[in-house]
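Me: I keep going back and forth on a fold encoding question. No explanation is needed for now; the record alone will do.

Assistant:
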Amino acid sequence: KMTQQMRDLQLAQARKPPGPSSPNAAKRLYRNLSGKFRVNYTSFDEGSLVGRGEKEKLRKSYLFQSNAALFEAVELQDLDRVQELLKQYSPEELDLNTPNSEGLLPLDIAIMTNNAPIARALLQAGAKESPHFVSLESRSLHLSTLVREAEQRVNELMAQVVNEAPNADCSEKEKQLKAWEWRFRLYKRMKAGFEHARVPDAPSSVHLSVASSSSLQVTFWEPLSVNSAVVTKYKVEWSCSPTFSPLLGEAVIDKLKDLNFTIQGLVSGVAYHVRVSAYNMKGWGPPQASVPPSAIPSNWREYDGRAPRRRGQAEALDHLLGQVKTVHQHCVCHEPCKNQPQSRKHSVSKSLKHLFHPGSKFLKTLKRGLYLAAIFYKDDNILVTHEDQIPVVEIDDTYSCLLMQDFLWFTKVSCMWDEILWLRQCVTVSQSSCSCILQTRFKMLLAISQMQGLLGIQDLGQVFFEPVKDKQGNILIVTLKEVKTNQTFESVRWVPICKLQSSRKSVSSPEEPSALDMLLISIQDKLSYHQQSSRALSPGLYLGYLKLCSAVDQIRVLVPERRPNILCHVKIRSNPNISREEWEWLQNMASVEEPVPTEPEADTSQNPLFQELQVAIKELMTLVNIPLQEAKDFRLYSQEVLDFGDQVSFLLLLPPSDDVCTAPGQNNPYTPHSGFLTLPLQIFELGEET
């Protein structure tokens, strides 16, 4: 059967163009060809192609050539070219796991020539070994046949070259001879690499942690030995017995981008032992037991049977809002609107229509009052009016002192941009006889509707955490939204931000800039704040630092500028779960009023969480610029772990109880001075929700 395969191979080779005459010539040839392969087939003039079938044929031709270029790059051990092809084409386009005419895959060539960097690059792209090698004997036989047939082909071509007179055919035979000599040496090197290889050592380290009440996470590292062949897969095994008899389960991992695995479907409260072994072309190596040798699936909530804090809250709030809407639809306060004379209806209709009338335009200049500015940006461009102004509408021209409660109310309204019309209907009925506060808030809703109507979009984005104020009595409430799709806006256009800043003519003095000038000058800072507020944390357990300061009308919370939607923090570990045993240790430490662990202790040196907390606390104290000796008076919040979904959780580090919240005028020794800002607590809560 193998001989017949090689005969087929010879026939296939006879139909192929002559091979390269030498490794250098081969390298030049494949580089020239692969340069052509990089041409995108869609760049051709489609009008010259006859139908869709012709285009598909051309596409397949280029993908076939890219597959050939990958084989050439692996054979020539050109790591840069291999990485370039893997980046340019998908595994499917490269036919990464389709054997060639010799029954080999790119990964086979890389591991049998012991080229670890190329093998790792292929493995991370999803490459696999050839399915033809079902045993060590079959691989050895296949390699021996390739070497023998290549040697036979070299001898045949050499005899032809020696016996034939010099001519064009002879020159062609010499090229084929050099190509086959090079391939013969490649196959011999692959055969020698296979024969000298040995099974891999055990993974250098295996770490076991509790991922949830029904799962364990296994993280492992490749063997340290560099003498064995490249590892192509790993096997994770688990059992309730330290002897692994009986074996409860196993999983083979051949996607090696991340060397970790989560064992799912385990029983809470049961101890499981885990081990990991590595595999290469010579077989499976010895297993490595995990550290710790066993773990019990659990979660900190099992300590006292506590239910998740937010379970069902979103659904309950949606239900409550639906009930409020239903009540307001039939509320008696809406009846006067229904029973008014026809002329009154026309008057109300006319008063509402003026918002969307061409006469209602964006403002060019500000008078003394309260205004709404909407910033929409995309890459380095910003949305402006036809007068090259940031879209601004008036809220109240008699309002010169924005109360913090009004501003915080506006930020809550930003969570309901689609419900503005309904909110206006709820406020309209009694606004003539209501307080000044309700009148101001009704005007805010009118301004939002006007901005939405002029722009032709409902969602105005996120409210910046503080208004822009100038000395002339102007106040700007600013909303920010990043546009990631090709949305259509009305009455506005896109311009580069730098062009807007350089071309705008200021109408105020540098000593007393207007609110619009102040907004334009600080626009990059506001865009940065908005972008940073939208960044999500990577999965893991974090240590957060809670520091508050109070004012007359608000409480503010300390946050980092680089991520203002979350507390000052450092990452403890990648596993977000706190096990029942870990939480019990934290509770015991809190019950005896132990200080936070900043120095190692003999009896807890084997506790992984204790060691992780030590490192995290030192890092956090350095981040917020607090001397480490002062952290001895700090406390870990032991009432609960703050869970943000299933992937992110927080432990809180608190200053001494008297210093958690600093009063106005009080010395604040635990607040850093640079790289941080303080947000109103309500603004922070809204940002944390997003």
About this structure: The first strand starts at residue 205 and ends at 212. The domain at 57-196 is CATH 1.25.40 (Serine Threonine Protein Phosphatase 5, Tetratricopeptide repeat). The chain has four domains: 57-196, 207-298, 369-534, 540-590+604-687. The mean pLDDT is 81.
